[in-house]
Structures are given as structure tokens and as C-alpha cells.
Hints:
Strand content: 15-25%
Helix content: 10-25%
Distance between the termini: 33 Å
Order of helices and strands: HEEEEEEEHEHHEHEEHE
Number of strands: 12
Structural class: alpha/beta
Number of helices: 6
Amino acid sequence: AESQMQVQSMLHVFLVVAPIVATRAVQPWALFPEGEVPGERPGSFGPEGTTACSWTTSELCIENVTKPTLTPYLVKGSSAAVIVAPGGGYATLSWSNEGTDVAEWLTSIGVSAFILKYRVPERPWLNKGQPGARGGAPFMDAQRAMKLVHSRAAALGLNISRIGLMGFSAGGHLTAHIANDFAIEAYSRIDSVDDFSSRPDFALFGYPWVLEDDNRTLQFQVRKSHPPSFIVQAEDDSISDAANSLLYYLALKTAGAPPSELHEYPRGDHGFGMCRYKKADPKTTSWGNFRGSSEVPGERPGGPGDKIK
């Protein structure tokens, strides 16, 4: 598909992609030492669980995350990696559609992946009522995830300068937060892992939420130090207005950030993930070739339920 080729080409620009060989999935890594998850209040939420997403029974979501982790999908010989941040409105995590499906696609093109299971729902005593706030648990977890992969890069055979972050919807908001505010420490140093940088070397955004409710004001101060980026969204997105991607891209240009790409497609709505066509060739993946199709790729009755309000 057109978009799959585009994002794959971008990955080849920024990464040394390994020949496709057997993928080795390993047990999840705890982001923090036991009992040292910053800002956590044990017992504040129910047990963690995996369930059908509220917007479709065909996808799995994870709720009530209190122990954040990274799940590695390692490709032998790969020197590049992408940390994947699923969406879910900071209330749940769209684990299959924007997590495992994405990791499996990345490994299929020779790139190692790590799925970030960050804490949801929001901790009101941390975010002060502002979804995705700088002092919130998701921001802490994403910072620690970048640092943890950087700290283990050499042992895994990864190039420490080729580790990126990819986020969808609320995960796109989180990606923008880290891409701009990586130098602002979200929590006090815990161990040697926190001596590593949390800056991603490149950033990929799928239908991100980055604007205020007026859909005209960015929530972030986009900085020149922002990494190179790839942004994709559908113009008919019913959850996150297409202006999110447009204004964010313009802010990157205004700030003088490294070269980036923006791809806006006429149709696709929100939450299409890897956008697998029901009747198309199974190789049609990634963010879909919407042009010329009478079927709306990725559209699901009831919508994704991923609006952040």
C-alpha cells in the first residue's frame, strides 16, 4: 500500500533495517523497580485486565494499568528499534490494534519494537485534571521507557542513535510530549537508567491529539530540537480533528525542526491502526491506501471511543 511504502521508506532513511529473520518476543520488562513507580498510590484502582475494547469486540484493550512495562519484539541483527505507544484516551490502552499489530508489522520489515504499557487511567493527583499533563503518569512512563531502551541498547545490539517513538491518538499526544519536553524530568532520579536520554531519534504520529479544544491552539511548544517526524491522519477523523496534524506539521516547520513528512488522506476516520482491508491483499497494511476505495478502511461501528475530553 502507498502509505506502508512511505513509512517504510522513512524508516529506511533513519534506520539501518535488518534482514527479516525470526522475531524473538521476550517477557515484558518492568519500567521501574518494584515499589518505586513514581507517584503511584497502591489500591487506587481495580486489578489490571485485558478485555474487548468498548468500541469493538474484535480488538483487545488493557485497563487499570498500575505496573508499567515494555514488551520487546526483538529482531535478530536489527540495530534499530521503535517504542510503540497505543492510544485509548488515557483511560485504557488499545493493545491489539495500536500495539501488538504495529509491533508485528515493524518486525516484519526488520525493525525491533517495544510496546509501551503506560499507566491508565490518569492519576488525578498527578495530572491535576489536565489529560496527558507533564507531571502525569503516562509522561513519566514514556520518559522511563526511552531511557530504559537506551540503557540496554548496547546489550541488545541496537544503535543508541536509532531508537524512535511511535504513538497513536492519545499515544500520539504522548509522543509529542516526549519529542518536545524530553529534557524536562518528570520524576526524581531512581537509578542509573535515569542517566540516559529520553529523546527519541525520530517520531511517528498516527492521528494524534495535540490541540486544545478549540482545534486551533497547540498544547505544546514545538522546539527546534524535535526529532524528524512522520505524521498521518484522515481528513474525516471524527475524534481528533485533522487540524491536529496540519498545525503540528506547520509548527515543526516554523520551529526549524528537522525535515518531517505529513500525510493527510480523505477518508479513514479515527483509530484505523494498521488499517487492514477485508477484501484487499493481506500485504496492504500500515496506514492504508484510501484513494479509490469505496470501503472506509479501519472504520468501526460506534467509533473508537478514544476522544480525550
